[in-house]
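Hi R.,

Here's the chain you asked about this morning:
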Amino acid sequence: SATAMAASPMFNALSYNPKQIKTGACPTVDSVTDDLKVLEQYTNQVRIYSLKDCNQGEPVLRAMENTTWKIQLGLWVSNVESVYEADRTELLRLAGIFDFTKQVSAIIVGNEAIYRGEQTQTQIAEKVEDIKATMAKIGLDSIPITTSETWPSIDQTLVDAVDYINMHAFPFWEGVPIEDAQDTMFQHIYDIQKIAGSKRVVVGETGWPSDGGNFELSAPTLPNEQRFMKEFICRADLEQIEYVWFSAFDEAWKPTTNASDVEAHWGILDGNKNPKLSLPMYDCTGFVPNSRPDEPSDSSDASDELSGLESEDHSEDHSDASNVESKDSESSGAMSLTGANI
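And here is the predicted structure, written out as C-alpha cells:
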C-alpha cells in the first residue's frame, strides 16, 4: 500500500541520472522536481555521479530543498585531474549555498576509477582524505566520505581511507544464471566484510537489466530483474545491508555501442517514467534467504541474519565515465563487471 511504502521506502536508494530522460539534455530544477515526484513513491534517497557534468549538482540540491530527500553526491574521478578538481571546487561552492547537513547523506569520491585503470587505490585514498579534510575545515565532518568501486578493486588502502566501504557487484556481468545470482552477490559482500574491520559495507550499486542480449549465462529479462531484486533486497534487509539499486530510470538515449545492448534497460521505471514491474515490485513476505557459505544448510539462525553488514558488488551499465571527456555524466554499461560511469 502507498501508506506502508511511505513508512518504509521500497528502495534504500536509487542510482539517478538527472539528465532529461527522453533527450539526455541537462537537467533543470523543474525537470529534477518532476523526476523526484515520480521517485518519491519508491525511495527517499538518490545517488548522483558528478556535480559539474551538466552542472547537475545545483538543480538537484535546489529541487530537494525543504524536503525529506537525501542525496549521495558523487565527484567524478578519471585520468583527467581537472575533472576531479572541477567537481571538488563545485562541491565547496554548493556547500556555501545549501545546508548539506539536511540533504547530503554521503560524498562519494570517484566511481570505478580504479576498475577502469584510471587511478590507483593510493590515488583514490588520497582524494578521499583530501575531501575529508576539506569538509572538516568547513564544519561538515559529520557527512561520511567514501569512494565507489567494484568489489575486486577494494583493498586495505581503500578500507583505511573511507568512512564506509561502498562496493559494486553485478552478478549479471559475471555471466551467472539467475539461479546463482543471490549466492554470487552475497559471497562478494561477505568477502569485503572480512577485510572491512569495523567499517560498514554498503552495496553502492547492483541491479539486473530487463532487456537486451544475454551475457554468457545471464539473461536480461523482466522476470529475472524482479527475481534478483527480491532476493537481493529481502536478504539485504534481513542482514541490515544498505544499498543503492541501479537504477531509477531506463535511459533510452544511452548509446548501445558498448559490447552489449542492455545499457538502456536497468531502470525500475521505463522511459516514460512508468513502473516496469507491477506494484509492489517485490514482496519479502515468507522470504527465506539461501544459507550462508559458513553456516550449515539447515541453519537459519537469526544471528546469521544479523551478522551481515552491508556490501556492494559489481555494477555494470553505468560505465559512461569513460565518456566524461564528452561530458556524459551518465554511466554507460561497459561489458565488464563494473558499473556506473559518468
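One quick note: Residues 141 and 234 are 32 Å apart (CA to CA).

Cheers,
M.
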